[in-house]
Write a structure and sequence with these properties.
Blueprint lengths: L1 E2 L2 E2 L2 H17 L5 H17 L4 H27 L17 E9 L4 E6 L2 E7 L10 E8 L2 E6 L3
Parallel strand pairs: 5-7
Antiparallel strand pairs: 1-2, 3-4, 3-6, 4-5, 6-7
Length: 153
């Protein structure tokens, strides 16, 4: 392929495509562009070995599919850890500090706390009684009942 005054080989074109796709992958998630880039690298190897367009496309397809089914799951498992996930909804309540609105007393079966703008039924984790206005920490969420303990000051 001729570009201006320079003669560019197909393997160079494939490498340029691969580099651009790896750059795109830096700004995206999911490892899709990198899978295509790996296929482009294999197509560059095929072109450098003298294979024609059909051979290059076969190497491209094998590279994309192989990296999608073999490399991508490995990368997603080890590079996208669960610690980075943001907890939402009920899962986000655990560890939050709540204010007691109705005395929490397991013996009498009463207790309500206010946390994140909502009023929840609450029980004490160790049977302690918490008076109205006290601060408690949410330990567990069971359906619509929060298990709480005394919050540190």
């Amino acid at each position: 392929m001729a570009l201006g005054m320079m003669e560019i080989e197909w393997w160079q074109v494939w490498l340029i495509v691969a580099i651009l796709l790896f750059i795109v992958e830096i700004f995206t998630s999911g490892f899709f562009a990198a899978c295509v880039a790996i296929g482009a690298v294999l197509a560059a190897v095929a072109a450098a070995c003298g294979l024609g367009p059909a051979g290059q496309l076969i190497f491209l397809a094998v590279g994309i599919l192989g990296s999608f089914f073999l490399v991508r799951p490995f990368v997603l498992k080890y590079l996208h850890r669960k610690e980075r996930q943001v907890l939402t909804n009920v899962d986000a309540l655990v560890g939050q500090v709540a204010r007691v609105t109705v005395k929490v007393d397991n013996a009498s079966g009463q207790g309500r706390v206010f946390v994140n703008g909502d009023d929840w039924r609450a029980v004490s984790a160790d049977g302690s009684v918490f008076g109205e206005g006290e601060r408690v920490r949410v330990l567990k969420v069971d359906s619509t009942i929060l298990t709480v303990e005394k919050a540190e000051a």
